[in-house]
Each structure stands twice: as C-alpha cells, then as structure tokens.
Amino acid sequence: MSQEKDPHVRIQELKKDKVKFVLENVDLALANSIRRVMMADIPTIAIDMVEIESNTTVLPDEFIAHRLGQIPLVSTNCDEAIRYTRDCTCMDGCKYCTVILNLNVACNEEGKTMMITSNHLEVALWGEEVDQSMITAGDELSKRPDNFGQPVGKDEIGVEPILITKIRKGMELKVRCVAKKGIAKEHAKWSPCSAVGFEYDPHNRLRHTTYWFESDERAEWPLSDNAQLEEPVKEDEPFDYNAKPTRFYMDVETDGSLGPQEVVLKGLQELQTKLANLVLGLKQEPEAEMATGADQSLPQTNGHPTAGWGAPAAGAGGWGQTSPNGTGAGAGWGSPVAAGAWGGSPGTSNWSAPPAAPTGWGTSPAPAGSGWSPRPPGSAGWGGSSPQQAGWNV
Amino acid sequence: MNAPNRYELYVLEEGERPVEIIEDTKIPNAATIKVVKQDHTLGNLLRAQLLAMPQVLFAGYKVPHPLQPHFLIKVQTDGTITPTALLEQACTKIIGTIASLEATFKKEFQMSNIGAAVAEDAYGTGATTSGFPGDRDYLDF
C-alpha cells in the first residue's frame, strides 16, 4: 500500500444528497473496500413488516408491502438512535427498536384518481400498550432527530413524494408498517446509497481493461469528465507494467436516508470496526485454545510465575505445559522469536488478559531449531482445539 | 419457513469465534486463517496489505462458497514473524491508514460545508429566496 505518502482527499462537489471526491495515495483494495462498505454495511431504517388492515386497491398486498419497504426513511444517527430488533430485549417491537408508520387513505371523490404517496405515511407515537416490563430502557430516543423515521422529503416543497398506488372512488388502503434497523447485506432497501460512482485511470494507462470497438476506439469510447484531470497517454509512451492506480474518483449518491457526509464517515468507521474486531479475534484465539483445557485443570497456576506460559522453567515443550503427556520436546512452535514471549515477565503475565506481546507464539527455544518443528498433527500443544488432543487435562 | 435468519450472514452466532487459525503442516511459517461472517471487503483489503509487507512470501484469499459467509486468507512469511502476528500487524496498519483518511475527510467536509452553506438548503424553503447564486434554484441540484 502506498504508505510512503499520506492519503489525500479532495472534495469536488458536496450537495444535499451527493458528494464527489478524489481519493489519492491509497491502494485500489482500500478504495474498493470503502466503496463496498458504504454500499452494504451502514445501518439505516426501512419498513420491514406491513400489517394490512384493509386493501381494496388494484395492487395485491405483497406488492404494496414491497413498495413500502423501499421508501427511504430518515435514518440520521442510526448507529445510536435505534437498536437492532434482534438485540432488543422486547418481545416483538418497542420504541427503542422499531418505528411504526401508519397509512390510512380512502378515496371518496367521484371520477378522480387519487395518488397514495409516501406523504401519507405518518410516524405513530408509541402508546403504553406494549409490555414495558421486558424492555431495557435506553437513551436511544434522545439521539433521534425530530423527523427520524419519516419518509425522506416528506411534505417538503420541491420534493416529489413517492407513489405507492393510485386509487379511485370506493377504494381504500389502511396499513400499519413496522420499520426496523438493518444493513444492505440483508436487503438492498437498507442501503443509504442509491449509487456509488467509482473510477480510476480514465485514460486506461494501466490497461486494466480492453475496449471493444467497431472501427475507432477513441471515437466509440468517450472519456469521462475525470479524464481532464489526468494526462492523456501519449502515442509513443512505453507501457509501465509496474504502475499501480493511485487516484480514485468517487461519487457517492445517497437516497436521502443519510447525508453523504454521514455515509462516508460512517463507512470509514465501519471498516475500522471490522478490522478492530479481527485484531481482537486474533488476540483471543490462542487464549481460547488454552482456556478450553486450562479452566478445568489448573486455573490458579496459570499466570503463576512457575507455571506461566512459556516460562523457561517449564521445559522445552511449547507453552509451559505442566501436564505430563503434553507436547513433548520438539512440539510447539520452535520459532526463534524471543523465548518466553508469553509470560515473559513472571508474575505479571496472566493468561486471561490480552497478551501484550504482539508476537504471540514465541516459546522457549525448541530443540528442533527455527521454523515449525515437525510434529504429528493432533498431538500438538496448542493446535488441537479439544483438551484431550492438547494433552491438558490428563 | 425454515430459512435461516438473514442476519446470520453477518452477525456472529452466540459463542462463535470470529477467526480460526489453521496452521499449515507442510509449509513452514504458513497458516490459513478463516475469518467468519466477513467477505471480500475485508479479504481483499488484507491480502493487498499483506502483499505490501516485506516479510510476506505468499498471501492470498478466497471465499470458498458464496453462500457460506466466511473467507480464508493464506499467509506464508519468511520466518521472522508468525503469520498470525503479521496479519494482526496488517490490520493495525490499515486501521492507521483509515484513521488518517478519516481525519482528512473530516477536514475536507468542514471546508466544503463552509463554502456550500447555501447548498445545504438545496431543497424547498430556500428556493424562493435569493440565497442561490445566479439563476440557480433547487432544480439545479
């Protein structure tokens, strides 16, 4: 990755529902991950369940439910302002994890077609009919803006509402919609982005693509606006096959449920969270292996100066094993990394705490020397996940 | 009816561990790391970062099946560091890059917001006022 230079961003255009920017000095993979995360991993709210009380319109119930689901709802600060229903303590829906929208429209006018639109959806206030005893109260509600959960652009001048269906005299639609929090990996209706433009190398200098053409490539493939920001490829220029893309032109267009600024920043945070969770998982991994066996047999001795992990006194076997038929000499990871990277400081090391040393598996020097010592699979010190295999409890 | 919950594609189950390390028995300093409930977003990013690190001899990732929500990342190092430690280092490095990117973004957004304070009112109310430069109104946005 282009670590030599700091990543650089230039915003070309910022509007209410879109942002165009140029990303420089980042890796293609990073730029693409940002794009992916903005499209699929940012939570918003959308109608997820529709209770139909009366539907005498020309459209069937499921048709209407589907259309309702795709209406963008204002989801500002969705991270903190609402819970996932699956995480909530309530039985089925409460004010902390759902937003209720009601729609009740009937046409009584002779000879006129009436349009049922997103403007008819009203956010309902929560009564006390829900059993409160199960629900853990939270401060979610205070983090919501006033228009949280309303259809985007509701009753705003100049914003065309979204048509749900058209009705004539004598027809009626009465529904209760339950909007929930979700992400676009589950259903695209939760995506805050309507489109994300992503372009690099507008002149195809890197030849990541080949253009099909009838007779003249240049004439048949018009250049994008971004092409003006880069030097065109000269006729006699030699091809640099080592070149990597460094400039990315992105154009994030939102559906209004979140602002473009929130989408970009939340996207970056989401990506960091993913990575942080992975780091956490990697750190916990070896401990979990130990814990499976250790918590039954020698919980107290772990972290004890003499029985700590990889304490030099514990013999040549991998992880400071005290068990007689644990890994013998030659097992374990005899890498030349400093001896006793685990529990190197006797007394302070505690296996239940996240290991401070990033280089985890250094053990006391194994006879086999550097590299992974050969050993029969399944008999290893830490490799086996079951206590029996690891030889801990015997 | 018996369809699994869709959120199972990206939420760890109760007690499920996010990573599983499968050490390679035949290749020295190599390991395959299974990352559950994650996809190309992370897989490709990590692969690219690992390949940019000098200690790496091999790095590659795959999503074995599109319906199974996990990916495998295979790393072989030159022996100065274990694959797991290296992967951890890669993660920390990317987090750093993103953090600095985030800071630049915040700064840029702040600047743009000052310059385009009017555009914030792009829809509706402001349309009738003369808040827009020239002849532009909300239709231009």
From TrEMBL, chain A:
<dbReference type="InterPro" id="IPR011263">
    <property type="entry name" value="DNA-dir_RNA_pol_RpoA/D/Rpb3"/>
</dbReference>
<dbReference type="InterPro" id="IPR036643">
    <property type="entry name" value="RNApol_insert_sf"/>
</dbReference>
<dbReference type="Pfam" id="PF01000">
    <property type="entry name" value="RNA_pol_A_bac"/>
</dbReference>
<dbReference type="InterPro" id="IPR022842">
    <property type="entry name" value="RNAP_Rpo3/Rpb3/RPAC1"/>
</dbReference>
<feature type="region of interest" description="Disordered">
    <location>
        <begin position="290"/>
        <end position="394"/>
    </location>
</feature>
<protein>
    <recommendedName>
        <fullName>DNA-directed RNA polymerase RpoA/D/Rpb3-type domain-containing protein</fullName>
    </recommendedName>
</protein>
<dbReference type="InterPro" id="IPR036603">
    <property type="entry name" value="RBP11-like"/>
</dbReference>
<dbReference type="Pfam" id="PF01193">
    <property type="entry name" value="RNA_pol_L"/>
</dbReference>
<keyword id="KW-0240">DNA-directed RNA polymerase</keyword>
<feature type="compositionally biased region" description="Polar residues">
    <location>
        <begin position="294"/>
        <end position="304"/>
    </location>
</feature>
<dbReference type="InterPro" id="IPR011262">
    <property type="entry name" value="DNA-dir_RNA_pol_insert"/>
</dbReference>
<feature type="domain" description="DNA-directed RNA polymerase RpoA/D/Rpb3-type">
    <location>
        <begin position="18"/>
        <end position="281"/>
    </location>
</feature>
<keyword id="KW-0804">Transcription</keyword>
<comment type="similarity">
    <text>Belongs to the archaeal Rpo3/eukaryotic RPB3 RNA polymerase subunit family.</text>
</comment>
<feature type="compositionally biased region" description="Low complexity">
    <location>
        <begin position="364"/>
        <end position="373"/>
    </location>
</feature>
<dbReference type="InterPro" id="IPR050518">
    <property type="entry name" value="Rpo3/RPB3_RNA_Pol_subunit"/>
</dbReference>
TrEMBL record, chain B:
<dbReference type="InterPro" id="IPR036603">
    <property type="entry name" value="RBP11-like"/>
</dbReference>
<dbReference type="InterPro" id="IPR009025">
    <property type="entry name" value="RBP11-like_dimer"/>
</dbReference>
<dbReference type="InterPro" id="IPR022905">
    <property type="entry name" value="Rpo11-like"/>
</dbReference>
<comment type="similarity">
    <text>Belongs to the archaeal Rpo11/eukaryotic RPB11/RPC19 RNA polymerase subunit family.</text>
</comment>
<protein>
    <recommendedName>
        <fullName>DNA-directed RNA polymerase RBP11-like dimerisation domain-containing protein</fullName>
    </recommendedName>
</protein>
<keyword id="KW-0539">Nucleus</keyword>
<keyword id="KW-0240">DNA-directed RNA polymerase</keyword>
<keyword id="KW-0804">Transcription</keyword>
<dbReference type="Pfam" id="PF13656">
    <property type="entry name" value="RNA_pol_L_2"/>
</dbReference>
<dbReference type="InterPro" id="IPR037685">
    <property type="entry name" value="RBP11"/>
</dbReference>
<feature type="domain" description="DNA-directed RNA polymerase RBP11-like dimerisation">
    <location>
        <begin position="30"/>
        <end position="102"/>
    </location>
</feature>
